[in-house]
Amino acid sequence: MAGGSGVVAVCGHESDGGSALRDLLAPGPGPTPGPTPGPVPGPGEFPLSLVTGGRELLQCIRDLLRRQGPDDRQEPLCVVPMTLGRDPELVADAARTLLALPVEERDRVVLAEPFGTAQHLVGWLRAAANRVPVEAGLLVTAPSGGPFEDAELFRIARLVRQYGRHRIVEVAFTDGDPDPAEGARRCRLLGAQRVALLPAAFVQPQPQPQRQPRPAQAEAILPVGPLLPAPALLRVVDARVTAARSRRRDRGESGIAAGLSAAHGHGLSHSHSHGDQGDHGHSHGDHSHGDHGHGDHGHGDHGHSHHSHDHSDVPPGRDQSPQFPGDSGKPCAALAAHARRSTP
After folding, report:
1. What's the structural domain count of the chain?
2. Residue of higher predicted confidence among 85 and 344
3. Domain check: are 190 and 245 in the same one?
């Protein structure tokens, strides 16, 4: 792991609050799954703490900074949002939490880019699909997040099918609808004799008993393994940490400002102004405004240019103390705002 001053991985629904990553990085006897943050041993030096967002993230950062001491020669502590592209709110929430730090502590922390994007996830899923016989059906499986996060998984699965070899690709949610049992049933109805559970998250899906079991159905479920093995996962984290610390060293950027805009365009609260037509509210579930192309979405027959963003980093000396992300009623406020814009 780059440096030695500590890395904090902030976890959401894609890793079951970090439990799936604990199982992957420390198999067998090791840290007890739960909300209490703790270092997870890995190859060589790997000071990685797994936490959820909000107060737990804030407390972990303060504890690690306290252990570091005020040595200016140390690399900054790095926070890595462990999302695979389906949880942009995890990134924005982490940035808002870092703003709650006093300035002298915030200056010793950087926010890395998220572990992966939706484009990364499509590539990793296609690579995993190459380990599955072409005649088998693929069941792209992940924990349920929310309506927009779940809709994104359907889009990702469609791209896996479009640019892969498998003709039967369905979606299932380990704690939602359709569940893996229903997803496997749909694959069989489409003609698949065998079904591979393809994880689109850090959580490893487990075969579920069929509602109407038939002979040899258990053998028809093909295990694929984790989306990324532990060594590959650590290499990706290391790359994010190295890049974040380089941006601080070379350009003085903490990554917080970029993180605050990570969820821009996600959900119902996003709108563009269309001149004389007034506010035209619409969601952009298929793209973000930080790093995106326009190949995956269209806007019908109305043209508009996307506004540019000038996000300077958080000015030194400016201490903001927002509410913790988990304490606000933001989703309700977003729905209310959308309803107001949609009312004639």
Report:
1. 2
2. 85
3. no
